[in-house]
Amino acid sequence: MSDSAAFQEIDDAVRKDEMKEWWGRYGTWVVAAAVVVVVGAAGLVGWRQYDQAQRGAASAAYSAALALAATDPAAARAELEKQSTSAAEPYRSLAAMVAAQLRATHEEQVTALVAVAPSLPARELGDLAMVIAGFKSVGTPKAQETMALLEPLGAVDRPFQLSVHELQAMAAMGKGDAKRAQQLWTEITKDRAAPQGMAQRASAMLSVHGAAEAK
After folding, report:
1. Quick check: 138 and 110 in contact, CB under 8 A?
2. What is the CA radius of gyration of the chain?
3. Which of 107, 150, 144 is nearest to 129 (CA)?
4. Which pLDDT belongs to residue 208?
């Protein structure tokens, strides 16, 4: 046997002894860690399946409540209010928003939507609740108060900025401020992100009120 082969054999033996010593000291922890990983992975799969089942049930219950609203709004509202405290998201938030809109009067609906908005977990849903409240407040004593609450939602980084501008234009016309209303409608028509229906409404309002001013 050559010297290099002998040294290699000795080195291999030392490594085996070190491995035995290391395994004797830490092997139990390695096995335990592997078990934890396997159990954790199984638990994650189980949780996903459970979560999907919960969402499926919540979706079915929410759809049934919406269908019930057409024939029995009071019963639908009671069911949706129940879902708003226990259903999986996003159905919990959606149920709260719809339940608020099933109250008897527009003023009650506006009050309920304004109260619900801050409790919704997603800012976008909170903004949506406030915008709906804004449209429902038009022509009611709560219009001015609600429009003041909507002011921050007209910022460029908010998702319903253009809807807020449309409401602000309506409010401006109600105060006789046609110039401000036209400015807001013009901004909407020039914004490529504006939904087609909103842009068409803004164009129509500009046409009508522009013609009225020219007379």
Report:
1. no
2. 31
3. 150
4. 87
